[in-house]
Known about the structure:
The chain is an alpha/beta fold. It has 3 domains: 3-50; 66-274, Rossmann fold (3-Layer(aba) Sandwich), CATH 3.40.50; 280-335.
Amino acid sequence: MQPKKQRVLLILLILSSSMAQMLDPSEIALAVGMAVGAVGVTGILSRSIFCYIKECCSPVWISFNRTRLETDLDNRLFGQHIASRIILKAVNGFMSNPNPTKPLVLSLHGWTGTGKNLVSQLIAESIYSKGMKSDFVHLYTSTFHFPHRHMFNIYQLQQWVSGYVTNCEHSLFIFDEMDKMQPGLIDSIKQYLEYYDNLDGVSYRKSIFIFLSNAGGDSITKKALEFRKAGKSRETITLKDLEQTLSLSVFNDQNGGFFHTSLIDKSLVDYFVPFLPLEKTHVVKCAMAEMKARNLRPNHDVADMVARDMIYFPKHEGVFSSTGCKTVQHKLNFYR
Ligand SMILES: *[C@@H]1O[C@H](CO)[C@@H](O)[C@H](O)[C@H]1NC(C)=O
């Protein structure tokens, strides 16, 4: 009990004992009981009032909205039929399980601008009222947080992660640019991703870890081109078609943060999520969505101009946007 509450209780006790001469014992018991109850209720009340004003690690601020994630994936992510399906299934399954046995670990792979950051943001927004601005959502960008190849501090990363999860077990960690992260750094948090009940009294099983990387982008693109050349639509590409080539290329990428980590061979990653390279039609959709988000009337001609301004590869076919939808926002400013 906090000192302040103790003082209140003491005063109440003194008051009730001074009344004791006038009252009989059962009435005293009742008075004391009411006093204790009042203090307790005040405590709960002030905590919940506090939580209405400021973000807390409680359902008021943290609760999963499946409808929101589903509609956002439908309306804001383009050309990713495989990724959107896996993400919805994975997050929904995890969030509706009251007793997960391990944290949810997602690894998103694909070229820049294909929607990996967007998906992380949509997941955050479907769980935390404050979205990416939540105190319980932590974004690490390799080149920003861990810039020096040989000066990283494993201990500090562990302290961060365990500190944040101690503070709130429903924490979300996003590690961007995994392919630029020093090999070994991610190994230092491996223990948190495993099937432990708790480590030093902290349970990590309700947290979510998302890794973003370009690793595997090449092999995904190769597969997408194969389908195209065979005259098959990209929507017929399945996870199975990509899974093996993806995990092989991720594991063999000697520069990536995954290299030589045991994340993969110990199956700590629950889902490898491939992001397909985007075509011109998708860039047009991104531009239309961006105009809508800025409360402008979506203009197809402008969107088309933005899309035509992108660089497409492979050189001769010119099929896929080399930066996906990444530069759409800047280009829109230019064409409007
Ligand atoms: C869930 O999301 C949908 C769509 O964004 C919204 O209409 C609905 O009010 C949300 N539900 C809750 C409980 O916040």
